[in-house]
Amino acid sequence: MVSNRCKMLVKAELKKLGLHFVMVDLGEVDIMENLTEEQRNLLRKGLSRCGLELMDDKKAVLVEKVKNVVVEMVHHSDEQIKTNFSDYLSEKLDYDYTYLANLFSEVQGITIEHFLISHKIERIKEYIIYDELNITEIAWKMNYSSVAHLSNQFKKMTGLSPSQFKRLTEKRRTPIEDI
């Protein structure tokens, strides 16, 4: 689950099945009852109809947690992390970063760093489109060391400089779920 809409869909499916939950968060659900196999299958089918999947594999769940930390940090938080991202992720998930990085690459076929950069670029596009911050403010907000660093990374990922992107008439953004 990478959005509030996903959380709402999961809550609705749980309610349809009469299941009570303690919390539904990005990528995690804490259900009060022990699921029967029939309930698990019904939940799996209900989620599938919504374009979501029930994940039981511990490795896949951990990869989803990594994704959720990235999405939460980039798209839903204004908190500036004080450490580098690898330390932040390790601390947040209580796993060694090397293990997380290897697992993520194995399952997703891309590195955590590439996934993070892709999300940062989409967030930067959003800031540029809404034109509320200048590029210096965006660089600071997105934790870049300089405007030049942001601009170089933006150009590598999009083929355009931030100012060229700003001049585009058709702004092309990618939904979070598709990154």
Bin the helical content. 55-70%
Give the N-terminus to C-terminus distance in angstroms. Answer: 13 Å
Note the quaternary state here.
Answer: single chain
From the 3D structure, determine the CATH topology of the largest domain. Arc Repressor Mutant, subunit A
User: Which architecture of the largest domain does the CATH hierarchy give at level 2?
Assistant: Orthogonal Bundle
Task: Write out the strand line-up for the largest beta sheet, numbering strands in chain order.
Answer: 1-2
Helix and strand string, N-terminal first? HEEHHHHHHHH
Mean pLDDT over the residues: 88
User: What count of structural domains?
Assistant: 2
Low-confidence stretches: none
Radius of gyration: 18 Å
CATH homologous superfamily annotation of the largest domain: Homeodomain-like
Contiguous helical run count: 9
Q: How much of the sequence is in beta strands?
A: 5-15%
Number of E strands: 2
Q: What's the level 1 CATH class of the largest domain?
A: Mainly Alpha
Shape assignment: globular
Instruction: Please give the largest β-sheet.
Output: 2 strands, antiparallel
Describe the structure.
With about 180 residues, the chain is mainly α. The protein has two domains: about 5-55, no CATH class; about 60-179, Orthogonal Bundle (Arc Repressor Mutant, subunit A), CATH 1.10.10.60. About 60% of the residues lie in helices and about 5% in strands. It has helices spanning about 5-15, 35-50, 60-75, 85-95, 95-110, 110-130, 135-140, 145-160, 160-165; strands at about 20-25, 30. A two-stranded antiparallel sheet has the order 1-2. A hairpin with a 2-residue loop joins strand 1 and strand 2 (about 30). Helix 3 (about 60-75) packs across helix 5 and helix 6 (about 110-130) crosses helix 8. The longest helix is centred in the C-terminal third of the chain and has 19 residues, at about 110-130. The protein is globular. The protein starts with a helix and ends in a 12-residue tail after the last helix. The mean pLDDT is about 90.
